[in-house]
Amino acid sequence: MKKVAVFPGSFDPFTKGHECIVEKALNLFDEVVIGIGQNTSKKYFFDLERRKAHIESIFEGKDRVKVQVFTGLTVNFCKSINAEFIVRGLRDSKDFGYERSIAQMNQEISGIESVFFMTVPEYTAINSTIVREIYKSGGNIDLFVTNAEMLVK
Ligand code: ADP
């Protein structure tokens, strides 16, 4: 059976840190579905269609990577597409503390396992919030985001 993993996130925007986690996950899974979670109570800076088109442009030609939008619980999305694993990236112990409780609760309610990949040292400092701030202030985000031109408003 095909091993499918969901990499969920808000990806506002999708950075080289996220990209590196997808590349690592492709070594372990047959298919990686990047799930853009839409939370109705959350405000995003880059609109959904732009975030989706941006991520698709990064993985163009890689048919083992899919991009889908979902609402509601990540584990329900996983079940709906027959994915048995959730992939998340870890930068530091703060990420670990946060991810641990979510992973344990997801495991209990659904049986779906989370698999974690450490980011590479050069991407540890990258986070979407700071990239957004640089972008809003007119700074160049090419160092942190592949195909950043796809995000231009
Ligand atoms: P969320 O809103 O769910 O936290 P994000 O889009 O911020 O979503 O992140 C999605 C996933 O990517 C999380 O597992 C997060 O830890 C991971 N991640 C974010 N930035 C990096 C990075 N620079 N290196 C590795 N993993 C990262």
Question: How would you explain this protein's 3D organization?
Answer:
The structure is a single chain. This protein is of the alpha/beta class. The protein has five helices and five strands; from the N terminus they run E-H-E-H-E-H-E-H-E-H. It has helices at residues 16-26, 48-58, 74-80, 93-110, 128-136; strands spanning 4-9, 31-37, 65-70, 85-90, 113-118. It has a five-stranded parallel beta sheet with strand order 3-2-1-4-5, with helices on both faces. Strand 4, helix 4 and strand 5 form a beta-alpha-beta unit. The radius of gyration is 15 Å and the shape is globular. The termini are far apart. The mean pLDDT is 96. The structure holds adenosine-5'-diphosphate.
Widest sheet: strand ordering? 3-2-1-4-5
Tally of helical runs: 5
Structural class determined from secondary elements: alpha/beta
Spans where pLDDT lies below 50 across 5 or more residues: none
**What proportion of the residues is helical, as a percent range?**
25-40%
Overall form: globular
**Rg estimate, integer Å:** 15 Å
Largest sheet: 5 strands, parallel
Order of helices and strands: EHEHEHEHEH
Mean pLDDT: 96
How far apart lie the N and C ends? Answer: 42 Å
Catalogue the ligands: adenosine-5'-diphosphate
> Count the strands?
5
Fraction in beta strands = 15-25%
Question: What is the fold's blueprint, element by element?
Answer:
Layout (H helix, E strand, L loop, with lengths): L3 E6 L6 H11 L4 E7 L10 H11 L6 E6 L3 H7 L4 E6 L2 H18 L2 E6 L9 H9 L17
Parallel strand pairs: 1-2, 1-4, 2-3, 4-5
The structure holds adenosine-5'-diphosphate.
Adenosine-5'-diphosphate (ADP) binds next to helix 1 and strand 4.
